[in-house]
Design brief:
Blueprint (H helix, E strand, L loop, with lengths): L1 E4 L4 E4 L7 H6 L1 E5 L5 E12 L2 E6 L5 H5 L6 E2 L14 H4 L3 E4 L4 E10 L4 E7 L3 E6 L5 E5 L4 E4 L10 E2 L8
Parallel strand pairs: 7-12
Antiparallel strand pairs: 1-2, 2-5, 3-4, 3-6, 4-5, 7-8, 8-9, 9-10, 10-13, 11-12
Length: 172
């Protein structure tokens, strides 16, 4: 998410990337413009700032120009992304089928929440139950992106915290 910052046209961004090096490596970013098209921008600088990043783009020098991109999405080329062994991108995990080590099916990953210390996978079983699974080694035993499958061994009591989903009805 983007927000104008200061008078120089800097953009304050919230990002899933853990460091600014992801953007520096890409060198080019794409912003979702209000008219719906995606615009290409050259990155001049980026630095951490109070839990976010401040990004400077070539040709975007005033707060007024930056305001056009308030709450816009930001993208980089997929080929610019680098990951370490055992790391996964969120887009790779979305939709994975989650099973217990016993083989029992729990559901699919429908959302991922960043909590600070570790991510949490929201696993839903056909709109019946929802489970919050911490993305920690003690729980996640195997991830097979090609097979679209994750195997977990839940901590004691974790699955009992799952909640039954209730569809909201419109008031008449």
């Amino acid at each position: 998410m983007l927000r104008p910052h200061g008078v120089r046209g800097l953009l304050k961004i919230s990002s899933y990337a853990e460091s600014e090096f992801t953007f520096r490596r890409a060198g080019i970013v794409y912003l979702g413009a209000p008219e719906g098209e995606i615009e290409r921008w050259e990155l001049l600088s980026i630095k951490p700032h109070k839990g976010h990043f401040l990004m400077e783009l070539k040709g975007l020098h005033t707060r007024e120009k930056a305001e056009k991109y308030s709450n816009a999405d930001i993208y980089i080329e997929k080929g610019s992304l680098v990951k370490e062994e055992g790391e996964f991108f969120w887009f790779e995990l979305m939709g994975l089928e989650v099973y217990l080590v016993t083989g029992e099916y729990l559901g699919k990953i429908v959302e991922i929440m960043a909590t600070g210390s570790n991510d949490v996978y929201v696993v839903q079983e056909e709109e019946k139950k929802e489970y919050l699974i911490p993305a920690i080694e003690e729980v996640v035993k195997e991830v097979d992106i090609k097979a679209k499958k994750m195997i977990i061994e839940p901590l004691e009591g974790l699955l009992e915290l799952g909640r039954t989903l209730v569809k909201k009805r419109k008031a008449k």
